[in-house]
Write a structure and sequence with these properties.
CATH topology: Nuclear Transport Factor 2, Chain: A
Distance between the termini: 19 Å
Shape: globular
Strand content: 25-35%
CATH architecture: Roll
Number of helices: 7
Radius of gyration: 18 Å
Number of domains: 1
Number of strands: 6
Structural class: alpha+beta
Oligomer: single chain
CATH class: Alpha Beta
Strand order of the largest sheet: 2-1-6-5-4-3
Order of helices and strands: HHHHEEHEEEEHH
Helix content: 40-55%
């Protein structure tokens, strides 16, 4: 019975991964990111002021004015992907971040390191957040490009959303823990 249940769980997870994470033609996040790299070259002129604003806006994701602050931080033409969603519209991004802020009880993002390579900026960060019964700490990196006014035109996050978010969700979290335990026996 135990093996049947484990097999069923693995099949459900495999189907979910296939349905939700599979690339669809050129719509995969990889091809979208690569296209954005070509379309949004960025500028080196105002990277310093842009980074200061980025640090200030993302320091506390639970701020109730996060949506407005994000809209001021990003250029009108943009590419944003945080591993969960992709946006090309500044207004939609602002709404998404406002919804995120409303769901959080507390949040703290710390910039651990900044690396520059021409117009490309890589920010290594640590994030802690609390929402409902979830209390999580995660690490990640953001690839940023800024325009000549210091506003973000490209923002691609690289972080383990499975460990940082999904492991804390009902049903999905315990299933992931069981699969991990089974894989590491």
């Amino acid at each position: 019975m135990k093996w049947i249940l484990l097999g069923f769980i693995l099949i459900v997870i495999a189907i979910a991964v296939w349905l939700f994470l599979r690339p669809v033609g050129n719509n995969s996040y990889v091809s979208k990111y690569q296209a954005a790299l070509q379309q949004l070259p960025g500028s080196e002129i105002a990277i310093g002021s842009g980074l200061d604003q980025f640090s200030e806006v993302y320091r506390d994701l639970a701020r109730r004015d996060l949506g407005e602050r994000v809209q001021a931080l990003y250029a009108e033409t943009l590419y944003f992907n945080d591993t969960l969603v992709t946006f090309r519209d500044r207004g939609e991004l602002g709404d998404y971040m406002a919804t995120t802020a409303a769901r959080l009880n507390a949040s703290r993002v710390t910039i651990d390191q900044v690396l520059r390579d021409g117009h490309d900026v890589f920010v290594r960060w640590s994030m802690h957040y609390e929402t409902g019964s979830i209390d999580s700490t995660s690490i990640g990196m953001s690839h940023l490009r800024f325009d000549e006014n210091g506003r973000i035109v490209l923002h691609q996050d690289f972080w383990d959303s499975a460990s940082g978010l999904y492991r804390h969700l009902p049903i999905i979290g315990p299933l992931m823990a069981r699969v991990d335990a089974w894989m590491h026996r």
